[in-house]
Amino acid sequence: MADTTDSDVLIVGGGPAGLSAGIFTARAGLETTIVDDGGSLLRRNAHLENFPGFPAGVNSRLLLDMMAAQAEHAGCDRHEGAVTDLQSTDQGFRAETASGESLTTDVVVAATKNTVDYLADIDGVEIKHRGKDFVETDTRGRTGVPGLYAAGRLAEQPYQTIIVAGHGASVGVAVVEDSDVPFLPRLGRPRGVLHGSWSRGPARMRGDRRCGAKTPGNRVTGCDERILRRATYSSTHPAPECRRGVGSYLDTARESRRSRRA
């Protein structure tokens, strides 16, 4: 019997759009599964420019690997394979992969560039044929089917990596906003992070004098937003992985400069 995986959100496609969407849904507390067939366009390119944060450009495969690592760090469960069929159910959706795996989910984010075959059995999806196939959506990736979204190139966004990644993030936030998960859009964090749901770890930081009193159970209330924000993004950052990635990036940048001088 085929294995079955249940999740709140199923993202079909592991390129920049799908990974960006997953980072936001997973960090908001939604159980997120990403199915990736390895076909992202970035895998075919050697070097990427015009992506913020990399003045000399960046190795495309390295960037995609770093995005995948960030999605996993956020809580995404990544599966290798291809979704071949998607069906609506009373509870949401059921997807089948080429390997025979079955996945059930409340929400689907389709981020498969121009591949739409697996959507054929979903009533209400409007496919546009303009040389390549696209899915009709609103500006936030919502289709005509409740719970089904499309992100990135599949939603007819320009092919540039930064644009499809940004659209994926927008779709991910739309999924969270449309769900019942309390969400703090400004910081991309679930509600409660700045409102007394932390253990005493951040309160022990230097400079925490703005924090209010501790409540029973070592909870902290009334903490200054800037302190908690700093604690959040310093304490949860995957520093070793980040350093390795930055080191690889710098090596690539140096090699690029040497080649230009030669």
Automatic annotation (TrEMBL):
It is an enzyme of class 1 (oxidoreductase). Residues 8-39 form the FAD-dependent oxidoreductase 2 FAD-binding domain. Residues 198-218, 234-262 are annotated as: Disordered. It comes from the Archaea. InterPro entries: FAD-dep_OxRdtase_2_FAD-bd, FAD/NAD-bd_sf, Ferredoxin-NADP_redctase_2. GO terms for molecular function: thioredoxin-disulfide reductase (NADPH) activity. Its EC number is 1.8.1.9. Keywords: Flavoprotein, Oxidoreductase. Coiled coil: none annotated. PANTHER family: THIOREDOXIN REDUCTASE 1-RELATED-RELATED (PTHR48105). This is Thioredoxin reductase.
